[in-house]
Amino acid sequence: xxxxxxxxxxxxxxxxxxxxxxxxxxxxxxxxxxxxxxxxxxxxxxxxxxxxxxxxxxxxxxxxxxxxxxxxxxxxxxxxxxxxxxxxxxxxxxxxxxxxxxxxxxxxxxxxxxxxxxxxxxxxxxxxxxxxxxxxxxxxxxxxxxxxxxxxxxxxxxxxxxxxxxxxxxxxxxxxxxxxxxxxxxxxxxxxxxxxxxxxxxxxxxxxxxxxxx
Amino acid sequence: xxxxxxxxxxxxxxxxxxxxxxxxxxxxxxxxxxxxxxxxxxxxxxxxxxxxxxxxxxxxxxxxxxxxxxxxxxxxxxxxxxxxxxxxxxxxxxxxxxxxxxxxxxxxxxxxxxxxxxxxxxxxxxxxxxxxxxxxxxxxxxxxxxxxxxxxxxxxxxxxxxxxxxxxxxxxxxxxxxxxxxxxxxxxxxxxxxxxxxxxxxxxxxxxxxxxxxxxxxxxxxxxxxxxxxxxxxxxxxxxxxxxxxxxxxxxxxxxxxxxxxxxxxxxxxxxxxxxxxxxxxxxxxxxxxxxxxxxxxxxxxxxxxxxxxxxxxxxxxxxxxxxxxxxxxxxxxxxxxxxxxxxxxxxxxxxxxxxxxxxxxxxxxxxxxxxxxxxxxxxxxxxxxxxxxx
Lengths: 214, 391
Description:
The complex is a heterodimer of chains A (214) and B (391). By secondary structure, chain A is mainly α. Chain A has a single domain (20-207), classed as MetI-like (MetI-like fold). Chain A has helices spanning 6-12, 14-48, 53-65, 68-79, 83-107, 111-119, 124-158, 167-176, 179-207. In chain A, α8 runs antiparallel to α9 (179-207). Chain B has 391 residues and is an alpha/beta fold. Chain B has three domains: 2-244, Rossmann fold (3-Layer(aba) Sandwich), CATH 3.40.50.300; 245-256 and 331-391, CBS domain Like; 262-284 and 296-329, no CATH class. In chain B, the strands form four sheets. A six-stranded mixed β-sheet of chain B has the order 6-7-8-3-9-10, with helices on both faces. In chain B, β1 (2-10) and β2 (16-25) form a beta hairpin. In chain B, α4 crosses α6. The radius of gyration of chain B is 29 Å and the shape is elongated. The interface between A and B is medium-sized, with 22 and 28 residues.
């Protein structure tokens, strides 16, 4: 068989690539989605109880610093292999930037804005929803963006414990010593990361209240 | 009416920041709380809308203890203006003004109408500013919006926490005038915190000087300037303050209370003698020689004598009766006239001595050019007089 160049190779497996790409998006999406649902409230909660802020952020930091490969390995005895443990590990990874940015975003809202709100008779919830969250939104969104982009990369490693996704091409390529195969996984993953970064950047800009975008 | 009764506040449970404070702010009155930083003036103000909860004592608004009112409701019914303005940057000017109305669930049209009305009140064109964002406005304009926002739901009480201290002096004065104008129009009960005595004197109906969590003196600006209760207040006001507020120096403060008098039945030779020996600049002609206050029927001045002598081409003798030569119509100054007006009168009269009368038209004293001079040396800063000595 004649040796195929990358493009031929890629085109030959396009259906498989698209399927993996969708799977990849699904895994990352689930992990980041969960991290938003959990991380944003945690981030807000630790602005209310400041003494909890550094312990919580430190714990989230630990997950971030553990090598992902090790974490995927460690999770197998507990949750087994497949989608669930992968999403769980990726969720832990996504958590830190979201918690941290939510915390920073809300604590950096001008104290005078909050005081004005209090003085005007806003309840705590109204201060949160009418003042703090809208003003912190660009920063929170920045955290989500960073978290997602990193996660797209890390998701490739999840293929190791049978989650699927673009990482499968890469691992297969490594064991087959096929650069084309590695690139078939790596290039769409990189492209996805760039694309998501771009789109989220747009959203971030959109969410920035008119009055504070100079 | 806002009433503080024996109110104390302690943040750490040991030291009282506010110490058994009593204070009554009448309806429609603009009261300024003034004191050095850390004296408790802001804390006192913030207790009115329960941003700070009093530890002891009670605060009554219209005879209702505020602790029995829902905190959120209370705040929505009290306007609040802060130093840093605190406009919400993500909302337009209109939205900012409408916040409290929105919290109170007014409908959209009513809110908008009110916001535009208020923009006009603070002299910003609604068409131009309603849709703008706070960061597009100058500091002075922002605080105008802050004031409009506080007035949004037409509260009876407005609290202002050093609202103008971050502004430049010119803008500050403009906004002070604005507050005076708005207050003349609306008659709100305003509690205004500042550390700036000039500002307090300009705008206040009454000033409460606060030190160590207590009201030291609570008086009208005039009273405070004229009769500071103790050294602290005096120091805080600044001695030269009276000089900067000449409208608060009254004729009765600077007049001399000893006046040389002469009986109506007397003769001119006696008058000449009296003027010479006493070095007086004015003789009061009276019907009976008794202590002032009393009615004067005329005056005799050295100038008058000179004129008469020239006319007669000779000196005044015993045969010249006072009642024939005295000046029956003379300028006098009411004792409650301010120094500014006194100076005005005196400059028109070429700085001659002028009698001071009370409301019964009785003479109570006299203002001479010398008494003005005395006043200036008395209130001018001390180093000035020392300089003069050196020379």
